[in-house]
Amino acid sequence: MKGQMPNTTIYFDNAATTRVSDSVLNAMLPYFKEEYGNPSSIYSLGKSSAIAVEQARKKAADALGCEEKEIYFTSCGSESDNWAILGTAKMMAAKGKKHIITSVFEHHAVLHTLAVLEKEGFEVTYLPVYSNGIVRVEDVKAAIRPDTALVTIMYANNEIGTIQPIPEIGAICKEQGVIFHTDAVQAVGNVHINVKEQNIDMLSLSGHKIHAQKGCGILYINKKYRIPNFLNGGAQERGRRAGTENVPAIVGLGVALEEAAAGIDAKNAKLKKFSGQIIDSVMKIDRVHLNGDREKRLAGNLNFSFEGVEGESLLLQLDLHGIAASSGSACTSGSLDPSHVLLSIGLPHEVAHGSLRISMSEYTTQQEVDTLLEVLPKIIEKLRDMSPLWEHIIKGETFKIG
Ligand SMILES: *Cc1c(COP(=O)(O)O)cnc(C)c1O
């Protein structure tokens, strides 16, 4: 019966990845065994694959408010970010523009790509995000120079859930004639997006964050820009991103995007209610901080820091209760530094180490929230009882949050 066991994990890590929805899976299935043709083939089997890819492209274009020919299927959100940034950099360097503006708390798919460009002689301005975790529009405006090639600012932060003023930043970029890219991986399905109305020239998204499968994504590119190809080879994706299309994944992503765009308001109403309950309950715990702006945030993404608690211990304790969540601390990177996101909003190292991210989806239930809220305060108390640090903290040697 292996593989058919019910999944009993209480899953609060939807910002890391999501389960594939039944409708997405059902839409994908025929493309593995019956409709397995190569979309480039001219016989019927290939044609039906090609039609399926184009139908998915239409769904994606409708979800983002753009034209079908502006949608490029990629292998993941990271690839989309890499292509947008490296492609624009190459295109604009040819015009003598080698300055890029971003924020300090972007995803590593953006930051590490920019680091590569810095080594190649590009100059990058990293805008601050202040204690509320939000980029200021006036900072973007002030940073734009005659040689600015690109502004890339994420739509919503993956660790603390804060939503950036993307339409306003887009308007400034448009006014100044600067190309604007946004990593919208966490925003899609949670925020109403229309790339034309919001002045977005390029947008990255990822399938596995919105109930499609892992390993598929999209880069939207405004048709007025001809950024260099990402993969050279066949004529797929209008000749700009070669490689035989991942047909099942693309079909699934189309369905996931259609559902995500249609379900935003209902989902947010439910998740706002859950978030409110979680905030009210968790904030009753001694010495706890809600990270990021209280209002301008994704309804389903909460990040707390508990003084005197070590994030990894907290995750392990939650796991013993069947609860999956994540922390902004070191474990993933193997280094001792806490997350760059938590440091960017001014948390001291010690406080950032005691962080917990709770990220929900439309599948999150009241029962799961109740279980979390029953278990979490007890775990915090237990960990603090065991912590030598906690004694120092309650004796008044507190950390300053600023
Ligand atoms: C997950 C994520 C990515 C990377 O997407 P992949 O498909 O996993 O490569 C990029 N940016 C943000 C904000 C993310 O949350």
Q: Any overview of this molecule?
A:
The chain has 402 residues and is α/β, with parallel strands linked by helices. Helices cover 40% and strands 13% of the residues. The chain has 13 helices and 12 strands. It has helices at 22-28, 30-33, 44-64, 77-93, 108-119, 137-143, 166-176, 247-282, 311-320, 340-344, 349-352, 366-386, 388-394, and strands at 10-11, 71-74, 99-103, 123-127, 148-152, 179-183, 202-206, 217-221, 288-290, 301-306, 323-324, 355-359. The strands form 3 sheets. The chain has a 7-stranded mixed beta sheet with strand order 2-8-7-6-5-3-4, sandwiched between helices. Strands 9-10-12 form a 3-stranded antiparallel beta sheet. Helix 7 links the parallel strand 5 (148-152) and strand 6 (179-183). Helix 1 runs antiparallel to helix 8. The protein starts with 9 loop residues before the first strand and ends in an 8-residue tail after the last helix. Pyridoxal-5'-phosphate (PLP) is lined by residues 76-78, 107, 109, 154, 158, 183, 185-186, 206, 208-209, 217.
Low-confidence spans: pLDDT under 50, at least 5 residues?
A: 1-6
Number-wise, the strands total 12
Q: State the end-to-end distance.
A: 53 Å
The helix-strand sequence is: EHHHEHEHEHEHEEEHEEHEHHEHH
